[in-house]
Amino acid sequence: MSAPGKKPKPKLTNNPVPLPAPKWMNAQQKELWREAVDGAPSGLLCEMDRGILTAYVIAADGLIEAAKKVNEFGVVVKGPNTGFAVQSPFEAIKNKQAEIMMRAAGELGFTPIARSRLTKLDDVSAPKILADEPQGKKAQAHADAVTAQTGTAWETLLDQPTVN
Predict the structure, then answer these.
(1) Any idea where the domains of the chain sit in the sequence?
(2) Are 8 and 41 in contact (CB under 8 A)?
(3) Secondary structure string (H, E, C) spanning the chain
(4) Neighbour-count burial for 137-164, b at 16+ CB within 10 Å, e otherwise
(5) Which of 69, 77, 95, 127 has the smallest number of Cβ neighbours within 10 A?
């Protein structure tokens, strides 16, 4: 279990699965889906990620379409009732889709920070020092912290200095 407010590290399964785009998606969405699946680290995505990936792709598609409209009409347009300059409604749509896309990208491991936190299941091999060993609370807390480090092996834990 991770500390409050701290996201757990996504783990690569080392077992890639095919994830075809849903049939109901339009051509652009299917292309975005394929780019996302092909660009993801091998073994990262699984069938359970389908919903988040769908949200990511739809948001990316919405972002592209809204950006096209902003390019066509501009960021500022005439208000329909007053004639005064107002922000284009497409700008707000573009910003909202970008927000949804970035949130989903972080959950899927698509952002640079999320990718830096990825670990392979093979690399997470550190067993905990058993709590029934007479080490005391500080020593056990230290052992737990060392164990939590990615790639820590049992032999490494035995070489750690004891904390009193």
Answers:
(1) 11-121, 125-158
(2) no
(3) CCCCCCCCCCEECCCCCCCCCCCCCCHHHHHHHHHHHHHCCCCCCCHHHHHHHHHHHHHHHHHHHHHHHHHHHCCEEECCCCCCEEECHHHHHHHHHHHHHHHHHHHHCCCHHHHHCCEEHHHCCCCCCCCCCCCCHHHHHHHHHHHHCCCCCHHHHHCCCCCC
(4) eebbebbeebbeeeebeeeebeeeeeee
(5) 127
What is the per-residue pLDDT across 67-119, written as a single tens digit (0 to 9) for each?
Answer: 999 999 888 888 888 888 888 889 999 999 999 999 999 999 888 888 887 76
Q: What is the pLDDT of residue 130?
A: 45
User: Could you tell me if 108 and 53 are in contact, meaning their C-beta atoms sit under 8 angstroms apart?
Assistant: yes
What whole-number distance in Å separates Cα of residue 36 and Cα of residue 162? 46
Q: For tokens 């820590």, what's the residue? A: 152
CB atoms within 10 A of CB 104: 22
CA atoms within 13 A on the CB side of 148: 11
